[in-house]
Structures
1.
Amino acid sequence: MLLRKYVSLLKIAGKFELKRIKYYKIDYVINLFGKVMFLLTNLLFWRILSNIGYELKGWEYKDITVFIAFSELFYGLENAVFSMSSRFWRYIYSGNLECGLVRPVDTRIRFLLLNVDFVGLICTIIEFVTILLICHINQSVLCIIAGVILVLCSNIVLSLIRLCMSYTAFWHGRMDAISEFADSLNTFNKYPLVIMPRPVILIFKILLPFYFFSTFEAELVRGMMDTKILLTSLAMFVICLLFWICINNVIWRRGLERYEGING
Amino acid sequence: MKESMVKYFVLIKTYIKYYHKYPMSIFLKMIYLPIQLLMYMFLWIAISKYSEIDLKYLICYYLFVILLTNAFPFAHIASYIHNDIFEGRIFNFLVRPVSYIVPYAAQYISWMLCYSIVFFPSVLFVIIYAKIKLLNVLLFCVSLLIGLMIEFLIWINAGFTSMRIEKVKGVIMVTMVLKSLSSGNLIPFQLLPDNVRRIVECLPFKYYISEPINVLLQGKEPDLFFEYIVSAVIWIIALCLMAALQWNCNIKHLQMNIS
């Protein structure tokens, strides 16, 4: 029943998106062109490093291309579905939250669903498949699907972290700076995180999900790690996911108590 | 002239007071800018283990890349202009005694003044760490001021396209990508292939990041610096003319649309 409500919400958002495309065709075309340019720039950066002879230990250009494919998938999903979580504070600050609280669906999910960028989502999938096809990787489809699921999950964890930051608006009001800070967490998707020292990698696996943004997926698809590391890393990711779900719910409940307390 | 300067000062003071009221923006920059720098540092340290690179230069280079790229949410200039046009607020400015871009310029200047709290200690660190000459610091200040002006004008122009095509998400995206490659943000110009370098050097983006940083870290001959200033001034004039042209042509288009 609840799922049906979310699906109908998605349908409404989809209809709005189609109308938007119709009205602002030029913008969509330029945006698409920009996305292609962004990808080419990214590939150019690593091609330049590779041509000069600068290499990361154990990472060939082909591995980097797989990393870029997952990195683009992560950015794409984040921009298309989860980007608004860092702006949730506006919903709280402006008082719109009250309207959301009386609706039959979770306010946070509704907020995210109504801001889904469908064109961005489709472009991301096309981009991801194209990069993988171009770089001719002969890996099992199962590994790639597992990678995609992990990217989606890491996006969810990042979104939970951003929501936690947004909840500070319950106590401190306007939180422009938090949005900027929360958005900057994307930086950890720029390069393969194998460049980090071991203790930092451990933190990025168990406390913060940065290692799972795309580095882990690239390693998984390219078969760059043994089963023991794979399983321990997955266990760490599950701990990380559960940890942020708990934190998120605790802060949300505390925040709501304060919010409703003020109005009461 | 005097009256318009007074308006500028009043606006700048007002914005400084506003930023003073929300010190969190500056405080958070002090946290996440070093984190971002660490990413670049670890990448080049990892590369330096197996290749010969000038690590000291690259650390200083990327320190300034981070500081300058995150100095101001430049893309917001374009998106605010878009919002003004989209929601019709732009017409309020047509009856006001100040030009439309004055509040934006004042906001930009006042934020940069606040940002100096983060920026100057970093410059001081680089001066000591890389043993920079005083002359380079002076030339850096001049080139940075010019670069800031060019960057502002680029985003004003990007925002003004909204008067014609309404939504500017795509224009912002393209400008950001072009800036990322052509300003030296992604990789220093010296490492770019010759043909790519020749193209990006023709664009105005280099005046904000790459040129000021190289003036500081590597210095510049006086005659080359003079050439650089002349070409930058030509770009400023060209961008101002482009903005004026966009404004004059498109504001009529916009008013006709409304009426």
2.
Amino acid sequence: MPMVRRYTRRNFLGFAAMAAGAPVFDVKPLRGIDFILQNSPTPRKFLIETMPGGVALFDYNNDGLLDIFLVNGGRITEALRVPEDFYRSDPRYWNRLYRQNRDGSFTDVTQAAGLAKAGNGNYGMGVAVGDYDNDGYPDLYVTNYGKNILYHNNGDGTFTDVTAKASVAAGGWSVSAGFFDYDNDGHLDLFVTRYMDWDADHNKICGGDWHTYCPPAAFPATTCVLYRNRGDGTFEDVSERAAIAAKKERALGVAFADYDGDGFTDIFVANDGMQQFLFHNNGDGTFKECALESGAALTADGKGLSGMGTAFQDYDNDGRPDVLVTVLPREIYGLYHNDGGGSFTYQSLESGLGALTSLSSGWGAGLEDFDNDGWKDLFVAQSHVLDNVKQIDASLRYKDVPLLALNHHGVFERADSGVSTPWASRGAAFGDINNDGWMDVVISNLGGPPALLLNRGGSGNHWLSITLRGMRSNRDGYGACVRVNGQTRFATSAGSYVCANDKRLHFGLGSANRAKVEVLWPSGAKQAIHDVPADQFLELQEPERS
Amino acid sequence: MIRLFLFAWLAGQTGTPDAVQHLHAGLEARKQHQIDVEIAEFRKATEIDPSLTDAFVNLGTAYMEKHDYGGAIAPLKRALELSSDLPVAHQLLGYALLAQGYAAEAIPHLEKVGAKEALGIAQIETGQLAEAVNNFGAALAERPEDPDLLYYLGHSSGLLSKNAIDTLLATHADSARAHQALAENYFVLRQMPQAETEYKEALHLRPELPGLHLELGQVYANSAQWTKAEVEFRAETKLQPGNAEAAYRLGGALLQQGKAHDALAELKRSSELKPDMPETLYSLGKAASLDGEPATAEKAWLRVIELEKNTSLAAQTHFGLATLYRKQGKAAQAQHEMQEFQKLQSIIGPPRSE
């Protein structure tokens, strides 16, 4: 294992300076964005109220600038009953698409894009982004409590609701979703997490006099959904056939990577209040849930986790994707190190997360290189589930600042994110909003506006941003394994919690001003480019032959 | 038992023939479970012969059986006036007085017959808490699993403790011990900032006082301030190098910070000071596993599952062993331990995060 845990004094002083140094981000207003995430908390403590906040960072019009799509909750009244009405026709409760302008401001294009309203029976949760029809324009999939919606990007600035044709409505309470190509046929398939079997008529209130939201175990578990893309604009529900539906879950987050290097993308599901699930892709259209035997299901003490957000990337630069799971306080964010051979080791304590996260409640999360030093750092949007948690436990808090922890050769140390105002944050989407080579973050906050955390950059470190263009593989290149100067990223826009990240693969290069880039495409094609100049946005097209 | 005793005792009693006749009629009614007839006959016997001790004792007994404790008091008192050395009368009168709320008056009667449990209850009522604790403790030695005794011992000890603390706070409000007591109270209420303030004040006044650093460390541990917790636990281990708890807590704080090597040293030390503590052995195994000492981990964990059966700690330990064996490539042993883990989970429920 190449993780280095012994430091020279010079290294140590460097870390200390960084830890005590200037904030990494500037908290900037999103000019032109007037969105308020309407979660509509009520005294009846409907569990859905505390869960929404999808954010997508994607370039819907291919102008080279990241646009922002924000998922709204809906209006909830105390009288809510089945069939629920969330008043999504009211503009206050619409999802919103904001187009980024050249000056960094945003314009609300929701109505013009055909994304207004979202179905009165739908309470919004999350969003996934992928070019499912390989036409070069990213499509949107919005998850809801209710029915999910697939919006096809028409390529002219508008979208069309193609849910019925595509047969991907799911139903129930969907939370996170992600596009990936599980059968490597070049067409993006779709995985949807569902939280529990719940409706307004079966809501419960817990906590006795405290009157709180109930824990997930108070409600029946349910199954996730896997849709196979037939390649003709329609999908088929293969959850049963693929053995995804064989497991009852309380699933929130999902992330994808090929953890055992067999060329097929696997699925990690963050489950709330139970063991986590790792679905190994058998390569024959089926999956085997193997988290327990792989060591990625429980803590080192054999305890379940309140899994919410997740990331599936290589944090220690050993070439293998590791798993991060954000959880509730009194637990510790789970970090499962991929040892190779299909085996994971719970490494939250060794990596420093024990000291950083045991009183934190984490949602959206990412392993991204925010200081461009060649090591993926950790960012987590934080807030407790219970809005009255302070009354129950004075050492906990509802609103919180995000966690930024810089990665020092596999050990995380807290850094100043620049955020001093605590929020009730949920989603966190990662991308280079202003195309300056430094990763930024957009956070969704319950009952409030989203926050843009613009990376200050400026350390002098170099970077490389890679956009994949699949030819035989899916056009987005999702599932590709990309290695740059000893670092590895797995191409995906999924991960975090209810969010879709910038699909461009960002690499910090440290002091290196040139890079060696190697790509293993989902088709099996291999590509290597040497001596690539740093500090550029590079588009790589899949070779016809490897 | 009391009845048999009464019958034996009555065999030797004398009185006027009419009175004795009513006495025997009362005893016959008792056999027939005709309690009101029984009371009427005994009452007539006492009216005919006001010096017939056994009639008063039986009348009192009958009222007790009827749960008419107020009615029992007068005849039992009269019986003791006639014959002060009647254990049964003392015992029944003690119970009756206690039941009617006359705890102070009941105490001498209960003391005479050594009725420890009732005496303890009476002493709680009269504020003789130390005596009550002693009596419950003595009674518990004879009936160690009696739920009433366990309850009363806990209750009286708690009251005694509260009294002592109240006195401490009233008489020595500025003492280190008073601040410590307040801190402990805040800790229980999970008001950690206040607990921290009080512990710091106590340490300021008496920095050498054993236990203060340990408790302050636990305040920090509860708030996940592991660096501060480590400092306090380390201070306690310096004050009390022979304190296994302090070494265990220090090991735990180090482990939380990922300092597996240092944690292992402290946990080994704790285990030497106080061997066979399952929690210490479990943490020791965990630290050893993280620090690359699988043999030490295995040895500690195997000992835990010898000591612990069907507990969540046993389940955790089987899981730890399964992980250890899996990483060592010992597939069969890993599978066995995982099965044991799952078996325990099905019995005691899945381990929950704290």
3.
Amino acid sequence: MSGQALKTSTSSKCISVVLSGVGGQGTLVAGKLLGKVAMKTGLDVKVSEVHGMSQRGGSVITYVRMGCKVYSPIIDEGMADFCLFFEPLEAIRWVSLLKKGGTMIINSAPVKPLPVLLGNEKYPDRISERIKEAGEGNARVIEIDAKQTAVSFGSAKAANIVMIGALSIFTDIPESVWKESIEESFSEKPHLISMNLDAFQAGRDLVR
Amino acid sequence: MKREIMQGNAAIARGAWEAGVKVAAAYPGTPSSEILQDVADTYPEIYAEWSPNEMVAMQVASGASIAGARSMVSMKHVGMNVAADAFMTLSYTGIKGGMVIIVADDPNVHSSQNEQDSRHYARAAKIPMLEPSDAQECKDFVVKAFELSEKYDTPVLIRLQTRVSHSRSIVEFGEPNEIEVKDYSKDVSKYVMMPAMAVKRHKIVEKRMEEIMADSSEQTEAVGMHEEHIGSSELGIITSGAAYQYVKEALPEASVLKLGMIWPLPEKRIRSFAKKVKRLVIVEELDPFFEKEILAMGIPCEGKSLLPITGEYSTSVLRKTLNPTSTPEQAISGSGLPVAPGRPPVMCAGCPHKGLFMALSRLKVQVMGDIGCYTLGALPPTSAMDTCVCMGASVGMAHGFDKASDARDSRKTVAVIGDSTFLHSGVTNLINAVYNQSSVTVIILDNSITGMTGHQQNASTGMDIRLSPAPAISLELLCESIGVRSIQVVDPVDTDLCRKKVKEELEKPGVSVIIARRPCALIPTGKGPKGKYARVDKDICTACGQCIRIMCPALTAGPDNKPVIDRETCNCCGLCVNVCPVGALSVGGDL
């Protein structure tokens, strides 16, 4: 899958990345990792999340913006260069944030919300296909099974790092910076470092 | 100097440490909670405590200040209402060691009961207020606030809001000051606010505010910390805090006066800025606080006629109103795509509140609610709550129902209140109910933690903020000493017993307390036995749906309408086992 890589290191523009999923999927950990990567690259960066009612099972969103000088910590409609959707429903919920010409990566593994599990509402079918159709010519839509990939490395929890690996391909930030940042992010849990480095590499391989 | 990505709240803690703070106190409240926990976890030099409420925290900090130490107190916006009594008169006494009060607003009500604008407190109390717009400023403004506090002999307020508290950005560290405690000196004219002294101190307060107002205009570096960006003369914006970030994003051409000290307002500075632009727009979230003051100065400006008074602002809100041609193009508008089913917040798997609320729902009683995770009891499936207003209100309101109905309503009304909320301000209401001979039934939901705000300790948990052992107040003995006649303790997972006990207590005259005790499922003492989960015997199950109606995130209906247990999520609390009428569920499957 080829495409113009975003020249983060030389860009005077802000690069905006939305990470959205379900509580417990590790969007904030992934967001903080992106923050580290940006700082190592010499960029200004803001990472934003909301606490409180957004507990386990709720819809959660993390915003990361990096560039020479970042102002707003929040990404509004049409402002996101990249959207990492950790769950297909969240892609529908937040797709309006993606800018024309932007890229979205959707983790295909569904996490059914309670109203669906209780049979009160229906989980929509063919989400990725419908988004691809709707975004024809205006958005690059990539679907990966980050969960299954992560499970193959030992834990579904590393799906967030698989997603980051997939994103990394579309930037010109050197692979070494990503890997160093992963090592630092998990420095307090060193037994998780090699698994997450593998997950990162697998994410890269999925979209290359 | 070292640089690090920090959350705004963590930067406040860092600022307190750099400023040489000796004493820091708080009661948790979103979005302010991380400030004090970070102080406790990161800076062992600082004495830190969770106080039972914001008023106590304010008084602790003021005592430390008058004793000569630098002190800090932090709270959410509604906490300021609780602390206001102390705060209003601290303006008169002034300080000895610097004292800084952090108050975090929540525009858009992400996790609160209202979206009040705490800037009004600065004006009401005649205390200077600073407003940072990112994490770096959070740290820098705290350090500056301590200097100003000592320079002008006043407590200093710092206003945060959700997007500043909970956004992370790069902070360049400074060198820490030594912790210094000045010598205490008795000064009755300053610290004893009797009428004769207070009337003199009030004059000093007014003079102080005039002085600060002038200095804020003239000494930007040392006092005001304002920034002026001169761009186009067509449009000038006066703003502060998070709104400044949206202004810079949406209106890159505009001239901007960003206020650092937002009370008192730097009148001269505002006048000179207004002269440089043809059109002046005030961009401030929530109330038209600056706008009305600036209009009162006789300076024409626009604000709330263009922008909303409710909710939070964003880049797109400002673009739509002030720079519509710059609205970015979306890749996909969203039309034509299916509607995504919501993910409503629900009580966690194993949550001890679930069983009790199921009992209340079955009893169809009136429930006076309070502030905490258990406010979710108001939503389906239990829908068992009639009111939720503020900390501690449940007990007082139940008493009000009792008196309004000549005690008839107390046969069908309960108050529900968490352990931390009870100690915060429920206990005074319970004293009142006993003293004034009410017949209310109060249910204390004792989950042994302050849950909603992210698991902070409190006076009943047996641990202090740094998880060292601390005396644990006994809720039973406390209620007994107040004069509560009937005190029952139940396990909320036993929903049948809860129903029976509530029914019994409702019938009794006088004040009753039921303590529904089980630790929060997310803290170590509340976690279920490792590797165990609820098991379903499909041969016995009749697919009646009783267990499904709990709405437990770990238990859902399979294609045959029989329960399916998510083994990873199940906390093994046994609530589903208790509600199953045919005994098809049991606890103890091994993973």
